[in-house]
Structure formats: C-alpha cells, structure tokens
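Input structure tokens:
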C-alpha cells in the first residue's frame, strides 16, 4: 500500500527512535511504501528536499518556525503549514495514488491536505490524535475561549474530525473526551491508538554503569529523579520549581532536569537565584548521551499543568518505561495516565500542586530500592504488552483490508 504520513515532528533522521519514526519504519518493514511529509523550520536554513531510502520517501518541507518561537510566529506558521504541505506533496508526489493518508496532531490545520487526497484519490483517512487544540490553549490561559482566534481554530478542528474516516486516541479518557465534546462524531470511527515505540533490549538496572553521571557532575550515590522533555507552559512549571525548592526534603535524592522550551530560562533563573543543592539543569544533551543518562537514572518524572480539562497523555511515559524506570507523575486530574501508572504498579500519581504527597511518594521511591526496581520491571513489562509499535501498528493497517 502507499501511505502518506503528515507530521509536525522533525524527521531529519528516520533511524532516530521515537513514536513517529518507529511507526514509519514499522510500516515500511511490513512492505508498505511510506511517504512522509515533515517540517524544516526556518531556523534550520535548509531548503525543501526529498530523501528516499528503501520503502521510505521523506519530504522535508521548509516552513516558518513553529516551535520554540513567539506566539505570533507560531500562529502564522500554523495557518500556513497546510498550504505549504499541500504544495510540496502535489509537486513531489504527483504520480502517487495514496491508499491511506494518516496525520498527527498538532497541528489541526492539515484538513485541506487530507481533503485533497480524499476527494481526488478516495484515500482512507486516519487521524492520530496526540493533541486536543484549541481547548488545551484555553485551559492554560494562552487563548480566550470567546476570541475570534479560538472560533477559527475550533472550526478547523471540527473539519478535521469530520474528514477523518478514523480517529485514533492515546487513551480511553482521550476517546471519551472527544466523543463527549463533539457529538457529531460517529463513535464507531473512534478507537484507541496508543503512543507506542519499538523497545530497546531489556536492561538489568543493577548492572548499568554510572560513568555518564560522573561526566556531568551528577552524584552517583543518590537516587536520580529525572525529568526529561519539553519545558513549556503545559508542564505546569511553577510546581516543578516548587518541587525543586523543596527537594532537600527527599532523602538521598538528586533532581535532574533536561529539556528545552519557552520556560527554560525561567527555570534557569530560579535555580541560579535560589542556589539549590541537589538539582541539576541541562538545556540539551546529544541523544546518545541523554539515553545513557536515562539508563542510569532511577525514577522518571512527568509534570502537567493542573488546569487542563483535556486528558493529555505524554509520550514521556513510554520513554521511561522502555528503560525500566518507575514513574512519579504530577498532573491534572482529567488525564488517565495516573490510572495506567498505578494499575500497572509502575509508580505513583498525584495531582499537580500537591507538594506534600509528592515528597511522600518521592521518599518512598528514594529509600526503597527493591520496590523501585520492581516497579521499573512492571513498567517495562507493561510497555511490551501494550505499547510495542510492532503490535499497535496493526490497529492502523487493519483498516486497509
């Protein structure tokens, strides 16, 4: 089959591990011809180019900056991207008939590209829903629900749902939210398509080298609590800062924050001002170095703003599970990520803002090594049973007949 995949995720290196690169490679491994359209932001200073390797045809389209930029540029880029993708796909894939067009949110503005192929080629259309916008922007105060901008994006969101033959949601709570707030959607076309990866070989945590920690002046004799990922408004950074300021209340523990985003400078300034012991911050590490640090870490942290009404489900969960890390998650009460963590006995959940519970749970994980290791094993087992892309890709391809 010929499959067109539209994504906002950077796909410069298709051998790099991640939920979308793993999906593309697995589809190609199953014999499908996969045509990927992904962005090249203006800051990269690179042209639109097509790369081909085996069954994968990767079209990298030059666009404006859409990440790590101001709200105005992000908004303009979001509005333009569907026209830029459509132009590029028509030019470079003009002789290809697509059996399936699949696309991930964000953004919600792929509707014109999807519609073009659906109407002209009768392509099956599949939305991989990773982001519920614009409601998420309303939740954390970035957008006014009564604004013209919200009305515009809500209109685009509805059109995308309507044109999609199937909608794959990350979790049960995601699925229920979409159906509850969009009564026009036929419930039979909504299903669970979880965040999934191709897991690395299983690790024995007790045999992992700690040398990588020494290289970055991170203590090797303490329990390492790692937060790795985006550092933006959705993560509820104020609570992360509160945790950092009180991390000395957690016995024999060290907080390691690695990531980038709009709130990085705020975190950096806070840590400089407070001069906190037991907290390290890095903006960027090479992928191989970062992976070694995840291997050597002891607990994976997840943070989300407590104001969210939409049930986010961070892909960070699978990254920690892959490395057999127990998870400590502080999120809003609407996501069901806490249910997954606690039902699988792979860590603890609390509502963001509950510092007392965070400290209590962190102390348990820091001081009870055997429990921590067992929760890590449970996390890895749950990943293999539920979030292995080699299995979950069948959810997508079964619709091709």
């Amino acid at each position: 089959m010929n499959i067109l995949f539209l994504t906002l995720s950077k796909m410069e290196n298709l051998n790099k591990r991640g939920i979308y690169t793993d999906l593309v490679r697995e589809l190609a491994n199953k014999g499908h011809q996969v045509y990927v359209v992904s962005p090249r932001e203006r800051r990269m200073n690179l042209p639109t180019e097509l790369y081909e390797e085996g069954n994968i045809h990767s079209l990298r389209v030059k666009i404006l900056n859409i990440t790590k930029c101001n709200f105005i540029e992000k908004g303009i880029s979001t509005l333009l991207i569907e026209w830029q993708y459509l132009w590029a796909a028509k030019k470079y894939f003009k002789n290809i008939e697509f059996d399936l067009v699949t696309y991930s949110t964000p953004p919600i503005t792929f509707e014109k590209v999807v519609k073009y192929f659906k109407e002209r080629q009768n392509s099956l259309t599949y939305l991989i829903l990773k982001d519920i916008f614009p409601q998420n922007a309303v939740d954390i105060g970035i957008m006014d629900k009564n604004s013209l901008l919200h009305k515009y994006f809500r209109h685009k969101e509805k059109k995308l749902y309507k044109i999609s033959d199937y909608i794959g949601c990350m979790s049960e709570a995601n699925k229920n939210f979409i159906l509850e707030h969009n009564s026009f959607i036929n419930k039979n076309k909504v299903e669970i398509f979880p965040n999934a990866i191709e897991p690395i070989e299983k690790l024995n945590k007790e045999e992992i080298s700690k040398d990588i920690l020494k290289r970055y002046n991170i203590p090797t004799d303490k329990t390492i609590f790692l937060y790795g990922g985006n550092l933006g408004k959705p993560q509820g950074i104020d609570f992360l800062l509160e945790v950092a300021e009180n991390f000395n209340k957690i016995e024999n523990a060290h907080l390691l924050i690695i990531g980038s985003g709009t709130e990085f400078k705020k975190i950096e300034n806070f840590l400089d001002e407070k001069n906190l012991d037991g907290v390290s911050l890095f903006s960027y590490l090479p992928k191989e170095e970062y992976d070694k640090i995840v291997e050597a870490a002891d607990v994976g942290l997840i943070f989300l703003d407590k104001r969210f009404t939409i049930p986010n489900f961070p892909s960070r969960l699978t990254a920690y599970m892959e490395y057999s890390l127990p998870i400590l998650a502080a999120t809003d009460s609407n996501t069901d990520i806490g249910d997954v963590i606690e039902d699988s006995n792979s860590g603890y959940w609390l509502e963001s803002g509950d510092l007392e519970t965070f400290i209590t749970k962190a102390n348990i994980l820091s001081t009870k090594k055997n429990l921590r290791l067992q929760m890590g094993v449970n996390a890895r087992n749950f990943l293999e049973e539920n979030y292995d892309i080699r299995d979950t890709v069948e959810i997508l391809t079964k619709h091709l007949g």
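The longest strand covers residues 33-41. The chain is about 40% helix and 20% strand.
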